[in-house]
Amino acid sequence: MARGRSSDIRRELRKAIPESAVNELARSTGAVQRQRRVRIYELVWVLVLGFAIGRKRTLAALRRSYERETGQTLEESSFYKRFSPGLARLLKKLLARAFEESLGVARGLEGPLAAFRDVILTDSTVIRLHDLLEKRFPACRTNHTKAALKAHTIMSVRGLGEQSIKVTAEREHDGPVFRVGPWVRDHLLMFDLGYFRYQLFACIGRNGGYFLTRLKANANPTIVAVNRVHRGRAIPLVGERLRDVVERMQRQVLDVEVEVRFPRRRYAGRVHRDTQRLRVVGLLNRETGDYHLYVTNVPPDKLAAE
User: Fold this and answer.
1) With pLDDT > 70 as the criterion, what percentage of the chain qualifies?
2) Which of 178, 187, 66, 47 is closest to 120 using CA atoms?
3) Rounded distance, CA 75 to CA 259, Å?
């Protein structure tokens, strides 16, 4: 019976991490350059399943276990050379994959978010400190708090993407702390108004990513296209300023393309301006009569306004 349970466990483990996955990771981590006498797939499972067998754990015992499993007879040097930094990297990758499989995070997003590889959330929170830390962590409201830190957090919804925490003084603005790069490709980034910068929006787009945030109250971009046509006596929108028309509208959903102008970084003593086309979605609050306005670069066919 014990032998049968052991065989079942081995079979399930091998299904969870197939040979093709091990071989691919072995090449990418440098665990193997090419398959020789020691086969990496069998070696991995000897290490995983055989390392805790017996009272003593030695390389010689592992080699004998490998020979029993494969029917091969190996020189000691051939076996020992496989224990390299590349093998350590491979085992770490396999462990991470096993955790993902067991926790279910390897599954993709579903429903309206299925078009994205992951959703990344970022926000910050303020923590009051002792007054003696005022010089290192100056606070914004010194009338009641002299020292405070700000913890900037980036979180991956699926648990697979970018995740970090950065600590700054409270006076540090949220926007410049949040840096993006190629890792945002096919990711949806969501953040509040503290990170609202057109330069950030452009950088996310250049790297193949998407974002969603609220529209600033003082932002009044020009409407250049309408994503949803309404029947009847609809107010013409193209060419109008956004804030000039939302006060006169009663449609439940507003979905338009807008154009904004913003300054680039100063270069050689000059500030150049650029133009960006974005999507603004507004949802009408029937109780207040106001629109909740959001700005994004996600196209309508990827994410509906609702």
Assistant:
1) 83
2) 187
3) 70
Q: End-to-end distance of the chain based on CA atoms, in angstroms?
A: 57
CB 161 within 8 A of CB 186: no
CA 144-148-152 angle, to 5 degrees, is: 140
* Angle formed by the axes of helices 40-50 and 2-16, nearest 10°: 130
Q: Determine whether 8 is exposed, middle or buried from the number of CB atoms within 10 Å of its CB (0-12, 13-18, 19+).
A: exposed
pLDDT of the residue at 31: 83
pLDDT at site 232: 58
Output the pTM of the full model: 0.62
Sign of the C-alpha dihedral computed for residues 250, 253, 255 and 261 taken in this order: positive
Q: Report the amino acid identity of residue 72.
A: Q
**Strand duo 118-128 + 148-156: pairing:** antiparallel
- Could you identify the residue written with the tokens 């390299």? 84
Question: Residue 230: pLDDT above 70?
Answer: no
More confident residue, 299 or 268: 299
